[in-house]
Every structure is written in C-alpha cells, then in structure tokens.
Design brief:
Shape: globular
Distance between the termini: 63 Å
Strand order of the largest sheet: 9-10-8-12-13-14-15
Largest sheet: 7 strands, parallel
CATH class of the largest domain: Alpha Beta
Number of helices: 14
Structural class: alpha/beta
Helix content: 25-40%
Strand content: 5-15%
Length: about 550
C-alpha cells in the first residue's frame, strides 16, 4: 500500500472520528441528565426539572462600558440570546402540551414532564444538560442578645468603623441603591420607611420598580412589600436602618442609601424559579405587573443572605456573572455550617461572589461560620468577614431583634460598599477595583483551614474596615495592613492598561486609514515632488503615477 493511500485512509479516519464526535455532541449522550431527575421520575412518573441550553450570552464587552449603556447591553444580550435559542424548543414543548416557563438570565427552561420527554429533550442539539428543581434555604439563624446600650450605634456598625466614615467624610451612603433577594421587607418599619426608594416626597408610595414578589406570597397581585419571615427586614436594616437622622436605633451601616427588594424566598425556603426571577428583576427592575423592564433602575449592590450547603452547586452562577457584568456588587453570606473546613455554601462559593464570614464582638470567628476552601475552583472562602453574632436590627413585627448568622454579616459588607461608592462615584459599579480595596484594607486575622494570616479559609482577607476602605478609595492613603501583592488589584490595573492600549491602537489605525484615503503615497511621489520643486510642474499624470485621479502626493 502506498504512502499516499495510507495518508488518505488516515485522513478519512480522522474525518470519521470528527463526524462521530460532532454527532455525539448532538445526540442524547451529550446532554447530561442528572440522576436525581431520573430517580424522581421513577418514583412519581413525572417531575419538574430545568433544561439548560448550550448557547450562553457573551457579556465580556460590558466590562469596558459606562454604567448606563452597560446595564442595557447586558439585559439586551441576555434576552436576545434566550429568545433566539429557546424559540425552537418552546415551539416543540407547546406542540406536545408540555407545561414550561422560560428564563433568560440562565438561558434555561423549567419543564414538568415524564421520562419520554426527558429522553427527547436530551437528544436535542441545543440542550446542554437537564438538572433537578431544587430548593435553596435561608440559612438557619439563631436568636442572640443585644450587645450595645439603647441609644447607641449597634456594635457591628461601630466595629467596622462606619461612624468614623459618617463623621470624617460626611458620607452615609447618599446616592446609592441597595437591593436584597430575601424574604421581603416590612417597608413601613420606622428604621426603613424613609430609606425606601418607593416612598415619594409627599409620603405616598410607588412600588413599581421597587418591589418584586414572583411567587405572589404578599398577595395576587402583590402590590406592596411584606415579610412573612423577618429575615429580609433584618438584613435590610443592617444595610440602611435608622429610625431618625440619627435616631435612637442606629442599626444600619449606610443610613442615607435607598433600598429596593425582591422576595426570592417564599418563607425560610427559596424556590429556584423565584430566585431566578428575582435575579432577573435585580438586573432589570419591572413594574408591579412584571412588565416594562428598566435596567437603568437596577440597584448598585445586591445582598444575598441565602444559599445551599452544597457548595459545588453552580445553578446560580450565571446570574451572579450577569450581575457582575452589569456592575452590581454581589454580596453573599458564606453559610452557617461551620466550623468544619470546606463547608462554604453556594452561591457564596463562586469566584464571582464576594462571600462574607461572621465574627463576634471580640473579633472571634463564629463557630457556625462556614469555612473554605471553595469546591468551585478551590479558592479561598470567605472573601472577607464582618460582624455576625448578636446583631440587632429591624424585624417584621415593627420592633428590633438580635440574631446570629453569616446572614447578618453580609449586609455589613453591602453597607460598606455603599459608603465607598457614595464617597467615590468613579468607583461605582467597578466590582474588581472595589474588591481590591476591600481586600487591601481588611484587618488581617489568622485562621485555619488553609491559607495565611493575610488570607485564609476562616476570615478570608480579614475583618471588614469601612473607614480604611473609604479612606483608601478617596485617595487618602489608608495604611496598608500588609505588603503582599493583591491579585484583584493587579488584574484590575492590567485590564485597564490592556483596554487603553487597544483604544490607542484602534485610534492609530483609524488615523492611518484616513491618511491613506486622503493621500495616495506611491513611489512616483518622490520624482513628482522633485519636479515641483524644480519648477517644471507635474512630470506625469496621476493615472500614470499609479494614483487615483485627484489624489495628492505629500512629503512624508
């Protein structure tokens, strides 16, 4: 057999293998069906599951955009991708009278069906995986007792030096909007009512674009915020609560910031459909009919004090990535399943999430505070720690309550980000730069489960210090807590430099193109210019010189 024949056979075999691989990528084997879905169908004949599509939106260009077009770009890109790629699948489901609900932030469809539909869906080329419908939880919190005396600023607010930010910078979070995905909010609470974005100057309320209840727990239609648990009212109070200006209950870190809320958790549990719908609303708030989305009304910060102890569950990761692309700071509690190593919950375990651990009034880590490392990429978790033991804040009966949990720690961090962005508007929606500042100014605290004194799987980068963070952000030169290089800061600077170089290169190419269009530089130019210089006029016509008619030669 000749070498040529052997070569042809080898090429044919490679092509056949590629064809098989391509075919395999388009048959049922390529769409992973989670074993839990199979078990649920075997037990009940049908179940509810999620069909995740292969095509996901490219949000990378949003990083270099200004805040206003950035939000619109992310929303338009996500919805366009979902509309285009889901259309054939939705038509297929409708023809078979299969109930479904479409979501665009993950590009997934929630379906209720049996085994035959699952098999056919898994064989479709646009389907990436079929996963179960799970329930997330509001982490169990524990009653505590009040640490500070009546009439004083709450201990956690004092601990992170927020009052010094108020006094030194005159900054209480003005101009910043915080949002929470939680159990709702008692919007008439005396510590919260004046900070609600839906309150008009005349004392009336407009809940459009300020409240979202996807499961209609607070009414159908759900026309005003409520909280049937108390958890969401408590976390919101830690972010912005104050019953005066100031009042006798100074429970919030950024008391002049405004708030909006999405009820992603029906009670002490949070359905995946409610969480995804809330994630979409945070990205582009809607009116009370869930219509007419407005990305420009999205909050600056989204606080999330909920999750699952399964730290490797990546169901919500696309939502967090979309928030970050849009410039929404993603604050997450780290979970309450400590003290074991590797107990961090999701979504706090994601690299994109800024996870928060909890410590007490003596700066001792709480035994319940979940530790890293993260099962998603193996990174250090939490990212930072904040007060989370005996935290007193507003409650859904109109009073105040002291609770324990990383749920109480995360809103301290969210309030601190509000202070940073209020004082330094140029940093607003700059997630990477803000995280670098938080990392650099955190108070180093040793902890176990791996890492160093400067960054470990117990405290993360250390204890939150709002004063140091605002001082550094404003150019005041806050003292460095340590001299290590910070990866986030370096990455931020590299990205800015890369973007600047691309911009300069693009501008330079445009100039060259304009130059070439205006002037045709050719080898004949030299002789033509010499001829002009000697007074003999043009030696040849433009055509004979190889230039377009009307083109000019110039000395270069």
């Amino acid at each position: 057999m000749s070498r040529i024949t052997m070569a042809l056979i080898a090429v044919a075999l490679i092509a056949a293998a590629a064809a098989v691989s391509s075919s395999s990528a388009r048959n049922g084997n390529s769409a992973r069906v989670d074993a839990k879905v199979t078990r649920q169908i075997a037990a009940h004949g049908r179940t509810t599951f999620w069909v995740v599509l292969r095509d996901q939106a490219n949000l990378r260009p949003a990083r270099s955009m200004r805040p206003a077009p950035r939000g619109r770009y992310v929303y338009d890109t996500l919805t366009t991708t979902a509309t285009t790629t889901q259309a054939p699948l939705k038509a297929w489901l409708a023809q078979r009278h299969v109930p479904y609900r479409s979501f665009w932030i993950l590009n997934a469809i929630r379906v209720t069906a049996g085994s035959s539909i699952v098999k056919e869906l898994a064989a479709r080329p646009e389907v990436a995986e079929i996963i179960p419908d799970v329930v997330f939880r509001v982490p169990k919190v524990f009653p505590g007792h009040r640490e500070s005396r009546p009439g004083t600023v709450e201990w956690g607010v004092q601990n992170i030096n927020a009052p010094q930010v108020w006094a030194n910078f005159g900054d209480r979070g003005e101009g910043i909007v915080v949002g929470n995905v939680d159990t709702g909010v008692l919007y008439t609470h005396s510590a919260l009512v004046m900070k609600y974005r839906g309150r008009n100057s005349n004392g009336t309320f407009d809940h459009n674009y300020n409240w979202f209840d996807p499961s209609h727990v607070c009414g159908n239609p759900s026309t005003a915020p409520c909280d049937n648990n108390g958890h969401g009212t408590h976390t919101m109070g830690t972010m912005v609560g104050d019953d005066g200006d100031p009042g006798t209950n100074q429970v919030g870190v950024a008391p002049h910031a405004k708030w909006i809320a999405a009820k992603g958790c029906e009670t002490n549990s949070c359905s995946t459909s409610a969480l995804l719908a809330s994630g979409q609303w945070i990205l582009a708030p809607t009116d009370l009919n869930n219509q007419n989305p407005q990305p420009n009304l999205r909050p600056d910060i989204a606080n999330n004090s909920w999750g699952t102890s399964a730290g490797g569950d990546t169901f919500y990761q696309a939502t967090v990535q979309a928030w970050v692309a849009s410039g929404i700071f993603p604050a997450f509690s780290n979970g309450n399943t400590g003290p074991g190593c590797g107990t961090v919950g999701a979504p706090g375990s994601y690299p994109e999430s800024y996870g928060v651990g909890a410590y007490d009034i003596n700066n001792v880590i709480a035994s319940f505070s979940s530790r890293g490392p993260s099962p998603v990429g193996g990174g250090i978790k939490p990212d930072i720690s904040a007060p989370g033991v005996n935290v007193r804040s507003s409650f859904n009966d109109g009073s105040y309550a002291s609770l324990n949990g990383t749920s109480m720690a995360a809103p301290h961090l969210s309030g601190a980000v509000a202070l940073i962005w209020s004082e330094v508007p140029a940093l607003r929606r700059n997630i990477t730069g803000t995280e670098a500042i938080l990392d650099q100014t955190a108070i180093d605290t040793a902890g176990g489960c791996g890492g160093t004194t400067q960054n470990n799987n117990t405290f993360g980068e250390g204890r939150l210090d709002a004063l140091a963070a605002v001082t550094l952000a404003s150019g005041g030169g806050a003292p460095r807590r340590h001299h290590r290089h910070h990866r986030r800061l370096r990455r931020h600077l590299r990205l800015r430099l890369r973007h600047r170089l691309r911009h300069l290169r693009h501008r330079h190419l445009l100039r060259l193109r304009r130059f070439a269009a205006a002037y045709h530089v050719c080898s004949a130019c030299g002789s033509e210019l010499r001829s002009r210089g000697s007074g003999h006029g043009t030696a040849r016509s433009a055509e004979s010189a190889g230039r377009a008619p009307g083109a000019r030669c110039v000395a270069v």
